[in-house]
Amino acid sequence: MELHATTIFAIKHNGKGAMAGDGQVTLGESVVMKHTARKVRRLFHDRVIAGFAGSVADAFTLFEKFESKLNEYNGNLERAAVELAKEWRSDNALRKLEAMLIVMDEETLLLVSGTGEVIEPDDGILAIGSGGNYALAAGRALMRHNGNDMEAKEIAKHALEIASEICVFTNGNIIVEEL
């Protein structure tokens, strides 16, 4: 059985960026192993935020690879993401990893996947993991109806709270990082 990490939500709004992640780690489909995992982290002199969803061991491997790419390309987020995606897709061992990353700096928000995608969202909102679609829908609704009255970190937190009320693999122990 594998350990899985679950929901990450990120948003760029009014010149700020925020990323939120829940703390639940599940063993298989039925056992919660941890409630306080930290799936959102600051990298590269606190100028980049990255969050992961998927198999925990795989995600940590990708985290380390991404951080080394950031250092190699002096904090250039887009270049580091593209180079990670290329290596992830072409390397036989990395290709088997089951995880996804969301990465952001002050200017850019990207989804990085093992099939070689590096995607920048049109609306400045991304979500991944088992509760990702719930968080994405909640975040978009919050933006449409309260966006002008809310900060990026508030939207991120509320979107994950809503996802945690629906998705059994997402808990309410939420970490939010802001740029």
UniProtKB/TrEMBL annotation:
Gene name as annotated: hslV
Annotated organism of origin: Listeria kieliensis
GO biological process, one term: proteolysis involved in protein catabolic process
Complex formation: A double ring-shaped homohexamer of HslV is capped on each side by a ring-shaped HslU homohexamer. The assembly of the HslU/HslV complex is dependent on binding of ATP.
CDD domains: protease_HslV
Residues that coordinate or bind Na(+): 164, 167, 170
Alphabetized GO MF terms: metal ion binding; threonine-type endopeptidase activity
Pfam families: Proteasome
Regulation of protein activity: Allosterically activated by HslU binding.
SUPFAM superfamilies: N-terminal nucleophile aminohydrolases (Ntn hydrolases)
Protein name, UniProt field: ATP-dependent protease subunit HslV
Main location: cytoplasm
List of catalytic residues: 6
Keywords, sorted A to Z: Allosteric enzyme, Cytoplasm, Hydrolase, Metal-binding, Protease, Sodium, Threonine protease
PROSITE patterns hit by this protein: PROTEASOME_BETA_2 (PS51476)
Family statement: Belongs to the peptidase T1B family. HslV subfamily.
One cellular component term from this protein's GO annotations in UniProt: HslUV protease complex
Lineage, opening ranks: Bacteria, Bacillati, Bacillota, Bacilli, Bacillales
Protein function: Protease subunit of a proteasome-like degradation complex believed to be a general protein degrading machinery.
EC number from the UniProt entry: 3.4.25.2
Subcellular location: Cytoplasm
Gene3D superfamilies on file: Glutamine Phosphoribosylpyrophosphate, subunit 1, domain 1 (3.60.20.10)
